[in-house]
Structure formats: C-alpha cells, structure tokens
C-alpha cells in the first residue's frame, strides 16, 4: 500500500465531526449520511423506520473528539464546583451577618443546612426531567434560577428571605450533581470513564473546602455582600459558558429529535426503538415514579442502604467541619475568618491526593476487568474507598448524604460548647471509625449482598446473559469501540411500563443480522450496518452502567413502580 493509500485509509477511519456550535444548537444533527441511511422498517405508521445511530455518526456523543469531550466534562465539573463552593462560602460571612441582622449564629448556620437540604430535594426533579427534556434544557433553566436566587440572597430583606433564597439556590443549583455525572457517562466509554469521573469529582469535592477559605478572607475585608456577590458572579459566568459550550448528550432524546426531524423532512414515519417498544409516558408519571424510586431503592436494596449510610457519615462529617473549625480556630485560638479558613486546605489536599491516584486505580480496574471476561465486578471500584475509610478518622445515596450534610451543621456549635473541643471533635472521628469496615465488607462480600438485592441481582443476570452472547460474537472492532456504550443509552428505556411477570426487563443484546425491507445482500449500507451491529455485540465486554443513572442497568421497576408482592415472593424464595 502506497503512502497516499495509507493516508486515505486513516482519514476514512476517523469519524466525521460537527462543529461545537452545531452540536449545541442542533439536537437532530442530520447530515446526508443520516438522511440517506437505510433504516429498518417501511416508513409507515404500522412499520416505521427505526432510528438508531449510524456507523461513525457525527451526532453520537461517544464519537466526539477528545478535546470536545474534555471541554464538556470540565465545564460540567465547574458547574458542580460553583454549587458546592456556594454551599460553604456562606460560612465565611456568618459573623458579619450575625452582627448585621442581630440574630443567633445557630439560625444563620441554617443557611448552610437549607442549601444542602436543597441538594437532597432538587435531584428528585431534575434527574427525571432531564430524561424527558434533556440535560441541556434542564441545565439552562435550573442554573439560571440558581443565579437569580444567589443574587436574591444579596438583598437586605431580612433573615427569613435570606434563608429562603439559600434553600431555593441549593435546590436549583443541585442539578449538575445528577445531570453532570450523566453527561460524563454519555460521552465517555467505560474504559475511559474512571479517569474522567475522578477528575470530575475533584471540583464538587474541592468546592466545599475552598468556600470557607475564600469566603472568610473576602468577608472580613469586603463584607458579607461581596461574598454573596462572588457566588452570584461565579454562577452567572458558568451559566453563560455552559449554555454556549455544552450540547445535549442524552442519546434517547437526541434520537427522538432526529426521528421527528426525519419524519418532517421526508413525510415518512420515523421512530426510535424505545418509542416503538415502550410508547410515550407523561411528565407527571415520570415525576411520580422519581419521587418513589430513591426511597424504594434505599430500603429495598441492602447495598444501596449500606453505601448511603457510609457516604452520609462522610458527607455529614465534612459539613460538620464548617461549624467546628470556626469554634476551634476562631473562638478558641482567636484566628480571623480568613486565616481560620486555611484549615480546610488540609481537607482539600487529601481530596487532590485521592484524585491523583485515579489513574493508578483505573489500571487496577482494567486488570480486574481482564480477569473477569472483560467486565469487572462492581467491587473492583472499592479499594480506594478502603484507604479513604482508614484516613477519615485520622483527619439513594445523594438524598441521604445531603440530609446528613444538612443536619450536622445545625448542632455543631452547641455540641462543641457542651462537650468541649476535644470530645466534640472525637464524635465524627468515632462515627467515621465505625464506618471503616463497610468498604472492606462490601469488597469481600459484595457479590453475596448484591444477590440478595432485587434490582442488583436481576441486573447481574441480564449482564451475564449479555456477556455470554458477546462471547459467541465476532472480534471487537477498534473503530466501533463505543457502540455498545451508545446502545445502552439508545436501546434501553428509562421509562418503561410495569410488567407483572418480571421486576426487570433484561437488556436485549443486539442481533448480529437483520431483515431489511430495502436493499439486497450486496448493499454496502446493509453490510456496514450488519457488521457494525455485530461488532457492537462484541463490545459487551466493555459495557458498564452509568454510576449516576440507575436506569442504565435497565431495571424496569426502577422507573415504573414495583410490585411489592413480588419482592416478598422473591425474598421468601431465597
């Protein structure tokens, strides 16, 4: 092969790309390849064309360039940082607000608790709504509201208005905590997601620790209004940046938009696989399900409850420090608000060290995957938490974690006044010490615990079936490495009707061959499509569900309610 032929082959292997501007403004993303592609079906109401991603689809988030993906990931991470920063920066101006409003410190500390309480309630709305309207629109609306309520907190309208603004700001600002994680899962395949999630996690983790430091220095030098103003400016700037740079990434919505646009252009009927098989569901139904689902998982799934309690203690301890450090370093040692905030740098340093180890742990995770047929068990993610669990005493999930974070600051000052600095500081240490065995037990007995869980056990059986079918498929193609990741979003519904016969609808492995209405066996489009689907089957080994989206494991009951009689029946059979 000559040099020109090699260059042409390389060029042809690189997927065509849309501009970032088009990705942001055009959710259908239809080009000539998409328009002329031969989809399954006849284009009629009875047999509509089935819209899926085409090979090397420029509109598929999994096919975007690394620079585009990382730009989106960093903006999403900074959105989380802004919200987390605002949750704790308020503590840096509490002393000034106590003098200005002439209220108790405990009452103003509720400004932190109510903000974090919003973290618990907001995701119950924003996560399911993002499945209907998309992540892009939800961010645009919620972060705009977050900015407005942050600005409202700067007004001198009394303590009641201030606390109300803080609660609403936390509720609307919490949307990135669920949706940003979903964006990461939308654009990165499993073998790249560990590093992306590690770096992404640094921002929402560093935000609460840097907030008191910045808020303390700014509050003592410029006053409480400047602290509130800084939070407003940060939120507003990131709302503008996110609106301009972050496109829609949720695959089911993108395909639904594409199907509607194709139908409009051609006059024929196009639908997504989800809409054909599951039909549409109202927003009211989705919200009713979403309000029940976290509590259902929390109390029905033992592994969810265990991890939620563990993370609740960790998160509550972090927010306890926001009330404890001012007592220890400002009241007892006489430090200023700014200098007292420097104590949080130790916490931030520990977080940075943990993130820096992300690459090492990702290699360990990949090695575990290689030993288990290409799919690592969930426990392979736990070794870093064991180390973290040992370090904490020394130095659901979202709902319960945020409830702990909201409650701890309220009693911190009274606890330190009554118990003294030494004993009061020992309380979170003892709590954290009691949690040390949790990740170790889960690492060793996680598979047994998951087998006792309704959703987890069904999802494991579905994945085992998928892996078994994948083992019979053709070799994996390096060009279509992300195809199954995309398939998990594209062809598994997050909105499913209740099935009396089964709690979970198993994930359907893609067929290696199909019957097509148009084209014969020599049709290159048909051959390419068939090969692509066969290769995506081989990609089952790298499939991993989104850690932020329970529905990525295709649990029917997680979105459609659950038959509690069946749960009791399953439990009795075990």
Integer tally of domains = 2
Q: Please estimate the helix content.
A: 55-70%
> In CATH, what is the class of the largest domain?
Mainly Alpha
CATH homologous superfamily descriptor of the largest domain: MFS general substrate transporter like domains
- Radius of gyration equals 25 Å
Strand content: under 5%
What is CATH's topology name of the largest domain? Growth Hormone, Chain: A
The run of helices and strands is HHHEHHHHHHHHHHEHHHHHHHHHHHHHHH
The assembly state of the depicted protein chains is: single chain
Largest sheet: 2 strands, parallel
Tally of separate helices: 28
Strand order of the largest sheet: 1-2
User: What low-confidence regions span 5 or more consecutive residues with pLDDT below 50?
Assistant: 6-11, 389-403, 474-574
The class by helix and strand makeup works out as: mainly alpha
How many beta strands in the DSSP annotation? 2
Level-2 CATH architecture of the largest domain: Up-down Bundle
Question: How would you describe the shape?
Answer: globular
Measure the end-to-end span: 62 Å
pLDDT average, as an integer? 73
Membrane topology: Multi-pass membrane protein
Main location: membrane
Subcellular location: Cell membrane
Domain Major facilitator superfamily (MFS) profile: 72-574
3D structure, described in words:
This protein has 574 residues and is mainly α. The chain folds into two domains: 354 residues, Growth Hormone, Chain: A; 121 residues, no CATH class. Helices cover 70% and strands 1% of the residues. The chain is built from 28 helices and two strands. A two-stranded parallel sheet has the order 1-2. The longest helix has 33 residues. It starts with a helix and ends with a helix.
């Amino acid at each position: 092969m000559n040099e020109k032929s090699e260059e042409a082959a390389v060029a042809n292997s690189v997927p065509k790309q849309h501009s970032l501007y088009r990705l942001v403004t055009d959710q259908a993303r239809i080009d000539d390849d998409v328009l002329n592609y031969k989809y399954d079906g006849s284009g009629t109401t009875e047999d509509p064309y089935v819209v899926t991603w085409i090979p090397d689809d420029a509109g598929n988030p999994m096919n975007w360039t690394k620079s585009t993906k990382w730009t989106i990931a960093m903006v999403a991470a900074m959105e989380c940082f802004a919200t987390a920063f605002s949750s704790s920066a308020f503590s840096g101006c509490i002393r000034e607000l106590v003098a200005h409003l002439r209220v108790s410190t405990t009452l103003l500390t509720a400004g932190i608790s109510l903000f974090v309480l919003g973290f618990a309630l907001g995701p119950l709305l924003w996560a399911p709504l993002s499945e209907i309207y998309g992540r892009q629109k939800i961010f645009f609306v919620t972060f705009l509201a977050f900015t407005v309520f942050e600005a409202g907190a700067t007004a001198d309208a009394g303590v009641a208005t201030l606390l109300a603004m803080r609660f609403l700001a936390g509720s609307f600002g919490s949307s990135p905590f669920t949706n940003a994680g979903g964006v990461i899962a939308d654009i990165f395949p499993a073998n790249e997601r560990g590093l992306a999630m590690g770096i992404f996690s640094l921002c929402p983790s560093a935000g609460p620790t840097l907030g008191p430091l910045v808020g303390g220095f700014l509050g003592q030098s410029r006053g409480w209004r400047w602290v509130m103003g800084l939070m407003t400016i940060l939120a507003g700037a990131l709302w503008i940046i996110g609106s301009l740079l972050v496109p829609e990434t949720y695959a089911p919505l993108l395909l639904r938009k594409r199907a509607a646009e194709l139908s409009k252009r051609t006059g024929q009927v196009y639908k997504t696989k989800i809409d054909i098989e599951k039909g549409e569901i109202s927003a009211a139904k989705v919200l009713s399900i979403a309000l029940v689902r976290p509590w259902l998982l929390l109390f029905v799934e033992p592994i969810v409850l265990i991890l939620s309690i563990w993370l609740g203690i960790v998160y509550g301890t972090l927010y306890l420090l926001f009330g404890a450090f001012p007592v220890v370093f400002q009241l007892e040692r006489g430090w200023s608000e700014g200098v007292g905030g420097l104590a949080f740098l130790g916490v931030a340093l520990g977080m940075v060290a943990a993130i820096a180890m992300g690459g090492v742990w990702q290699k360990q995770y990949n090695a575990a995957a290689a030993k288990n047929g290409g799919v690592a068990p969930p426990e392979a993610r736990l070794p870093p938490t064991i180390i973290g669990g040992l370090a904490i005493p020394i130095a659901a999930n979202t709902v319960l974690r945020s409830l702990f974070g909201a409650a701890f600051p309220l009693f911190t000052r009274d606890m330190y006044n009554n118990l003294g600095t030494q004993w009061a500081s020992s309380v979170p240490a003892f709590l954290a010490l009691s949690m040390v065995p949790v990740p170790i037990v889960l690492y060793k007995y996680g598979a047994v615990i998951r087998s006792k869980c309704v959703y987890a056990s069904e999802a494991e059986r579905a994945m085992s079936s998928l892996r078994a079918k994948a083992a019979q498929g053709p070799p994996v193609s390096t060009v279509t490495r992300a195809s199954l990741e995309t398939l998990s979003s594209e062809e598994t519904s997050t909105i499913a009707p209740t099935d009396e016969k089964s709690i979970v609808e198993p994930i359907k492995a893609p067929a290696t061959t199909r019957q097509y209405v148009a084209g014969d066996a020599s049709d290159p489009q048909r051959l390419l499509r068939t090969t692509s689907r066969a290769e995506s089957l081989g990609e089952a080994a790298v499939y991993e569900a989104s850690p932020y989206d329970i529905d990525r494991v295709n649990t029917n009951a997680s979105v459609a309610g659950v038959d509690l009689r069946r749960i009791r029946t399953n439990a009795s059979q075990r």
